[in-house]
Write a structure and sequence with these properties.
By secondary structure, the protein is of the alpha/beta class. The chain folds into two domains: 240 residues, Aminopeptidase (3-Layer(aba) Sandwich), CATH 3.40.630; 133 residues, Glucose Oxidase, domain 1. It is built from ten helices and 14 strands. Strands 1, 2, 3, 4, 5, 6, 7, 8, 9, 10, 11, 12, 13 and 14 form a 14-stranded mixed sheet that branches. Strand 1 and strand 2 form a beta hairpin. The N terminus is likely disordered.
Length: 420
C-alpha cells in the first residue's frame, strides 16, 4: 500500500512584499517543518504496518525492534536490543463446529487449552448446565478502562464449563481480541474468541443446546522477545532522568494502537538527540504488551530504582491520531499536568478529558504508578482497537499524529533541559 503524498512547502509560499512577505515566509517555514514531520510519520507508519503481525516474540515483533535500532542510528543514537526469555503461544488449530458449520477463532492466551482432538459436548448459555458455554465481551471504551473484559468474561473464568466461546464486541462486527493480561498466571477453562458477526446464529444455537466441537490447540515455543533501549546523555547525569516509554508489540498490524506510539517515540528521540539536554533521557520500547506487559516488568526488574527515581515517565498511550476520536490526559501531579497542557496548546491540541491525578493509570503506566513513579500519558480511542482493520493508511490521521508528535517532542525537550 503506497504511502500518502504530501504537498511541499514551496507550493504554499505566496510571494508578497514588505511585512506581508515576512509574515507569509514565516508561515511557510512553519508549514515546511510540519510537512517534514508528517512525511516522517507517514514513512514510519507505513514501515510498521509492513512488518506484519506484531505479536510478542514473532517475526513482526522482532522486525520492529531491529527497525527502531536502525532509525535511532539515523539520529546518532545507539539503541540496543535487550532480549528476555518468552514462552510463545503458537495457535495450531482453533475453531468450533456445530453440525456442518465451522467457525475459526482465536485462543485466549491466558486460559487453558485443549489437545489437538479438542472436546465435544452440549452448547448453551453461560451459567447453564451446558458443557461448553457462550459468553460476550464488551466493546473497548477509552473512558472505561478494561470494559472489554465484561462481567461475562470474568464469570467464564471461574465457571465449571469445560470450555467457553467468547463473542468479541466492537463498534463494528468483527474479531476484537482481548489482551492476555494474566498470561504469566493463566486461569480458567479453554476460551476461544470469535467474531461478533456470528452473534445471532450462535445465540440461536445456544438456546437449542446442540452438540458442539471445541478445539483450542496450541504449541508453546521457547524463544526470546526484546525491549529496545537507548540513552541520550545529558550534561548533568546527577539529575533524575526523563524516561520516554512506549509498548511495541500487539495483535495484528495495529497501526494506530502501536504504530502511533512508535512514531511519537521516534520523533521525540529525534528532537532530543538534535539538542543538548541537561538531563539524561532514557528511551524504551517494550515487547510483551498484549501478554501481561511482561517486557515492562522485565525492564523494571533490572532497574529497581528507576521507576521512582526518574523525574518523569512520558508514556505514549494507544491510538493517538485515530481519525475523529477523543483523547484523554492523565498526569500524576500538577506540574506534569500543566506542562502537558501547555505543550499541547502550542500545537492547537486540547485533550477531550483530563483524568484525576489520583486515578488508576492505564496499561504500563500503571506499573510505574504502583512503584511510586511520576508519569504523564495521553491515549486515544479507536473503532479498530485490537482488530485486523487497524491498518495503514485508512486507520491513521497523519496530520493529527504529527501535531501530537511535535507537542511531545518539544515538551519532552523542555523537561530534559530543566536543571531543577
Amino acid at each position: 500500500m503506497k504511502r500518502r503524498r504530501f504537498l511541499t512547502a514551496t507550493s504554499r509560499v505566496a510571494i508578497g512584499a514588505g511585512a506581508v512577505l515576512l509574515q507569509r515566509t514565516a508561515h511557510a517555514q512553519s508549514a515546511a517543518r510540519d510537512e517534514r514531520v508528517e512525511e516522517r510519520i507517514a514513512a514510519w507508519l507505513e514501515e510498521y504496518d509492513g512488518q506484519g503481525n506484531h505479536r510478542t516474540g514473532t517475526a513482526g515483533d522482532n522486525a520492529s525492534a531491529e527497525w527502531l535500532v536502525r532509525e535511532a542510528a539515523k539520529f546518532g543514537v545507539k539503541a540496543e536490543i535487550e532480549p528476555f526469555p518468552f514462552n510463545r503461544v503458537d495457535p495450531q488449530s482453533v475453531y468450533i463446529a456445530i453440525g456442518d458449520r465451522r467457525i475459526d477463532g482465536f485462543a485466549l492466551f491466558d486460559t487453558a487449552f485443549t489437545g489437538a482432538e479438542g472436546i465435544s459436548g452440549t452448547f448453551g448459555p453461560l451459567g447453564s448446565d451446558a458443557d461448553i458455554a457462550l459468553a460476550e465481551s464488551e466493546a473497548y471504551d477509552l473512558s472505561q478502562p478494561g470494559k472489554e473484559f465484561s462481567k461475562e468474561v470474568a464469570q467464564a473464568r471461574t465457571s465449571q464449563h469445560k470450555a467457553v466461546v467468547i463473542l468479541t464486541k466492537g463498534v463494528h462486527p468483527g474479531l476484537f481480541l482481548l489482551n492476555a493480561n494474566s498470561m504469566p498466571k493463566p486461569s480458567g477453562p479453554p476460551m476461544l474468541q470469535v467474531s461478533s458477526a456470528n452473534t445471532e446464529w450462535l445465540k440461536e444455537m445456544a438456546a437449542k443446546r446442540p452438540q458442539i466441537k471445541f478445539v483450542s490447540y496450541v504449541k508453546r515455543t521457547p524463544t526470546q522477545a526484546s525491549n529496545v533501549t537507548a540513552k541520550i546523555a545529558g550534561s548533568n547525569p546527577k539529575l533524575p532522568p526523563v524516561v520516554v516509554m512506549a509498548p511495541r508489540s500487539a495483535w495484528f498490524q495495529s497501526v494506530t494502537e502501536q504504530g502511533s506510539r512508535m512514531a511519537l517515540w521516534l520523533e521525540t528521540m529525534r528532537a532530543v538527540a538534535a539538542a543538548k539536554p541537561v538531563r539524561d533521557c532514557l528511551f524504551v520500547s517494550f515487547s510483551g504488551h498484549e501478554v501481561g506487559a511482561i517486557g515492562t516488568t522485565n525492564y523494571l526488574s533490572t532497574r529497581p530504582d528507576l521507576a521512582k527515581g526518574a523525574l518523569v515517565w512520558v508514556f505514549f498511550g494507544s491510538d493517538i491520531g485515530s481519525p475523529g476520536q477523543p483523547t484523554q490526559l492523565h498526569a500524576s501531579n500538577d506540574m506534569l499536568e500543566k506542562w502537558a497542557l501547555a505543550s499541547f496548546k502550542k500545537q492547537g491540541l486540547v485533550p477531550t478529558k483530563v483524568l484525576p491525578q489520583s486515578g488508576a493509570a492505564r496499561g504500563e503506566a500503571g506499573l510505574i504508578q504502583r512503584q511510586g513513579g511520576q508519569f504523564v500519558t495521553v491515549a486515544g480511542d479507536s473503532d479498530a482497537y485490537h482488530n485486523i482493520n487497524d491498518r495503514w493508511p485508512e486507520a491513521a490521521d497523519v496530520g493529527a499524529l504529527a501535531r501530537w508528535a511535535t507537542a511531545f517532542a518539544n515538551g519532552t525537550l523542555d523537561l530534559a533541559r530543566t536543571a531543577s
